[in-house]
Amino acid sequence: MEITPDLSLCLAYSGSPERLHGFLASLAATAAPVAYEAIVVYRASTPPPAEVFRTFPAVLFFEEQDDATPAAALNQALRLATGRYLSLWRDSILLQPQTLYRLLTMLDDRPEIGAAAPRLTDMAGTTLASAGLLPSLFRHQPVGQPPAEQETPTPTAWITDQALIFRREVMDDIGPLDSGFRASFADADFCRRAARDGWRLALLPTAVAVDHAPIKGPSRPAGDLARFLLRKWLASPTANW
What we know:
Layout: E1 7-12, H1 17-30, E2 36-43, H2 50-55, E3 60-64, H3 70-80, E4 85-89, E5 93-95, H4 99-109, E6 113-121, E7 131-132, E8 154-155, E9 158-159, E10 163-167, H5 168-174, H6 186-196, E11 200-211, H7 222-234
Parallel strand pairs: 1-2, 1-4, 2-3, 6-11
Antiparallel strand pairs: 4-10, 5-11, 6-10, 7-9, 8-11
Helix pairs in contact: 6-7
């Protein structure tokens, strides 16, 4: 009998085999007792090396066209996913023991929470900006992190696609990522639409994942920010906690 995974982990290959190997190895080492599937989308021009395919035979690898936006590539992975919960990750993340278990336990216990995230840190343990307020004209990164020692889930408005877990029902309600975003803010738009439909979003500080290659001062295209703001301003007000 085929068993439905608890969680589908979807990610786009960055082109670094070391990062992808690190993510998949940390997943295999720390996921238990969560039953999972991993789906990796890569561009036709930059496939992972054969060694990665051999080392992780249970992972589903899917080739995407080079001109696909990052959001379109992730949507392809989401369409293939079969888990009760779906998630988006960057391959620079190293999962820690109990991270997935704590997140899924919280979601099982709190059905009103539609999407959640772990607290992300760098290798030195410094908390990274991965969840917080939505983008604005003057804010291009999420801000508003809870203290690391806080044990209860903290409301948030924007969870980045570095580490975003959500119920399958959320995507059923609001649809997938908007593939019209060329590089950035598709995650913010997804979170905004989820909140608009009444889903709550939360960061769980006691669930920790490490980004061993965080992006410093990323360039976010002005066109993507304009697209996000127009969609936000033309939509109905979002739901609050």
